[in-house]
Amino acid sequence: MGPGDHQLVRCVGGITFDRAGRLLVIRRARDPGRGLWSLPGGRVERGETDHEAVIREMREETGLRVVPTILAGRVIRGPYEIYDYLCEVGGGTLRAGDDAGDARWVDAGEFARLEITEGLAEALGEWGHLPRA
């Protein structure tokens, strides 16, 4: 690595829908994006796989146990390289925790009214994973 080069921070996010097609979102309680709505997720810790990180972050932020399936897409936001995975709920009870100020299922109309993190709607739309309800 030369002068000015920087390492991107690997992060993951979970794209999770309920049976009605509503998307699971959290309100960020910390920066970056404090107060904005986004997908649950966070940094991949040393020695973790992406799937392990998604499972941990989803449990910490939403109380739900999930099974990550396929990679939906990848975005770069500042120093963060975020890999978003589709997830299926395997148990747990929805509640906001860790660095999530709130967690909820939203339909397409609610999603359109939320203050969301920059680029989220565009990425989900491009990947075909906007709320269906």
Question: Layout of SSEs?
Answer:
Layout: E1 9-16, E2 23-28, E3 37-38, E4 41-43, H1 50-62, E5 64-77, E6 80-92, E7 100-106, H2 108-113, H3 120-127
Parallel strand pairs: 1-6
Antiparallel strand pairs: 1-4, 2-3, 2-7, 5-6
Structure write-up:
It comes from Amycolatopsis pigmentata. InterPro entries: Nudix_hydrolase (IPR020476), NUDIX_hydrolase-like_dom_sf (IPR015797), NUDIX_hydrolase_CS (IPR020084), NUDIX_hydrolase_dom (IPR000086). This is NUDIX hydrolase. Keywords: Hydrolase. One of its GO terms (molecular function) is hydrolase activity. The mean pLDDT is 93. Helices cover 20% and strands 40% of the residues. The chain is built from 3 helices and 7 strands. The protein is globular, with a radius of gyration of 14 Å. It has a single domain, classed as Nucleoside Triphosphate Pyrophosphohydrolase (Alpha-Beta Complex). By secondary structure, the chain is an alpha+beta fold. The strands form 2 sheets. Strands 4-1-6-5 form a 4-stranded mixed beta sheet, covered by helices on one side.
